[in-house]
């Protein structure tokens, strides 16, 4: 079976979804970025965008389950695009009930003809008709508990086994199932300009339903409506940000005249949050390695009308070459990490990470923390955060850092909203996606001991 053409089939949602799935499979880009590009190139109508998103994310999220359903019906080897086309069809047959079965089969056969030839179309037709006749096999018949969880939730077995060892079966099961549930959008209210009550009222008048979080006071859940095109967003009253990502800035305990450093700042979610909590007399230096990413911080700073942020393009592992040692009251290291806490937003991550990635990230994270300890003044506070739940990058990075830096200690008592205190213990906070229904996150809070100690 050979591929005949990849010419764009304008307006065709399923062909568009297939082209995204193929690019993700070839590691060409992340699904969320491809989705935006494909909506443009395929000229997908407004009403079909939600279906395109659902098909794309659904097939990536359920890849291993779909393969498990497909396998008994396949004789011989299938080309990647044919297998992904069958995933797309099985996904619709099993998980969506608004599209009639005959329409699903018909459309898949048409795509097979267009991308391949009549022979491929006959194979696709035959497999789908057999599935309709016989049904898909049960996952419950898998004996091994971890393998069953891996197939049911479509997370690679090695990750499931690793997490069961680290967190136990129940926590892992809750986490992998939550990873397949779409997140609720959250926004952060810019406290420098307004209050949550005023924003809730203003959104209500525009027909947008939001609810205030009981965890982070400036966080609102968007229950109905879209935020990105509202005036409140354009004029900097709110920022779209996951709730977990708001917590590191709370834990930084910003005081009005602080000199603050954000060492891994782009695209600026936490930097702008810190700046919103800082008085005009305080200052915030925000650093990132990449110029194009620093531009994104500048854009957000401008939108939010913040005038206390100074951005720098630099390697934060070498910042003491350009910034004065022991000169910052607060430092945030929101480190590069494996991102295993954000699988709900970027489902492709779970198939591409390897254990060796955790080790190399651990080294980078330690180098960044080393530099942070040089730049922090005695009695200053350092917050370390990642959006992963992987121990190598979290607890183990913290322990290795403490072992090397006797001048640093974990802060056991911190001010937090009451509803969050149960997640904080011994200077650290590990959030799973199921805890606040938000990203999986890790945060550690350090203090540099005073000169007399
Ligand atoms: C987790 S992201 C930061 C997210 C950001 N704090 C926010 O809330 O929007 C990590 C960032 O670290 C940056 N980074 C990675 N290595 C770096 C280095 N050596 N020096 C400075 N920035 C680095 C990456 O470019 C990336 O933007």
TrEMBL record:
One GO biological process term: regulation of DNA-templated transcription
Cellular compartments annotated: Cytoplasm
Transmembrane parts of this sequence: none
EC top class, as a word: transferase
GO molecular function: RNA binding; rRNA methyltransferase activity
Family: Belongs to the class I-like SAM-binding methyltransferase superfamily. RsmB/NOP family.
Protein name: 16S rRNA (cytosine(967)-C(5))-methyltransferase
Species annotation: Paenisporosarcina cavernae
Gene from which this protein is expressed: rsmB
């Amino acid at each position: 079976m050979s591929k005949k053409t990849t010419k764009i089939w304008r307006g065709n949602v399923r062909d568009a979804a297939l082209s995204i799935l193929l690019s993700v499979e070839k590691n060409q880009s992340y699904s969320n970025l491809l989705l935006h590009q494909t909506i443009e190139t395929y000229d997908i109508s407004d009403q079909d965008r939600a279906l395109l998103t659902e098909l794309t994310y659904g097939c990536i999220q359920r890849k291993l389950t779909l393969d498990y359903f497909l396998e008994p019906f396949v004789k011989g080897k299938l080309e990647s695009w044919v297998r992904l086309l069958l995933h797309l069809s099985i996904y619709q047959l099993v998980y969506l009930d608004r599209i009639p079965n005959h329409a699903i089969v018909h459309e898949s056969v048409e795509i097979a003809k267009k991308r391949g030839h009549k022979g491929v179309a006959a194979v696709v037709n035959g497999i789908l008709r057999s599935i309709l006749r016989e049904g898909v096999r049960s996952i419950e018949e898998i004996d091994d508990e971890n393998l069953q969880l891996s197939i049911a939730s479509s997370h690679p077995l090695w990750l499931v086994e690793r997490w069961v060892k680290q967190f136990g079966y129940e926590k892992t099961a809750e986490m992998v199932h939550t990873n397949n549930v779409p997140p609720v959008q959250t926004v952060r209210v810019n406290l420098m300009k307004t209050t949550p009550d005023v924003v809730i009222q203003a959104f209500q008048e525009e027909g947008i339903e939001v609810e205030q979080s009981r965890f982070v006071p400036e966080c609102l859940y968007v229950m109905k409506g879209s935020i990105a095109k509202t005036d409140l967003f354009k004029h900097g009253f709110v920022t779209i940000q996951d709730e977990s990502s708001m917590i590191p800035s709370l834990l930084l305990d910003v005081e009005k005249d602080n000199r603050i450093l954000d060492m891994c700042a782009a695209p600026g979610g936490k930097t702008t949050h810190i700046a919103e909590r800082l008085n005009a007399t305080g200052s915030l230096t925000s650093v990132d390695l990449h110029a194009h990413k620093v531009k994104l911080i500048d854009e957000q700073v401008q939108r939010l009308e913040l005038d206390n942020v100074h951005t720098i393009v630099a390697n934060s592992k070498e910042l003491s070459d350009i910034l004065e040692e022991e000169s910052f009251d607060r430092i945030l290291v929101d480190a590069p990490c494996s991102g295993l806490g954000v699988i709900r937003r970027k489902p492709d991550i779970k198939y591409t990470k390897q254990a060796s990635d955790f080790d190399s990230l651990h080294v980078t994270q330690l180098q960044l923390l080393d530099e942070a300890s040089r730049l922090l003044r005695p009695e200053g506070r350092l917050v370390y955060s990642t959006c992963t739940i992987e121990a190598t990058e979290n607890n183990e990075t913290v322990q290795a850092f403490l072992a090397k830096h006797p001048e640093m200690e974990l802060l056991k008592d911190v001010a937090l909203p009451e509803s969050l205190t149960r997640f904080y213990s011994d200077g650290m906070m590990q959030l799973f996606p199921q805890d606040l229904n938000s990203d999986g996150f890790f945060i550690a809070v350090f203090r540099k001991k005073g000169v007399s100690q």
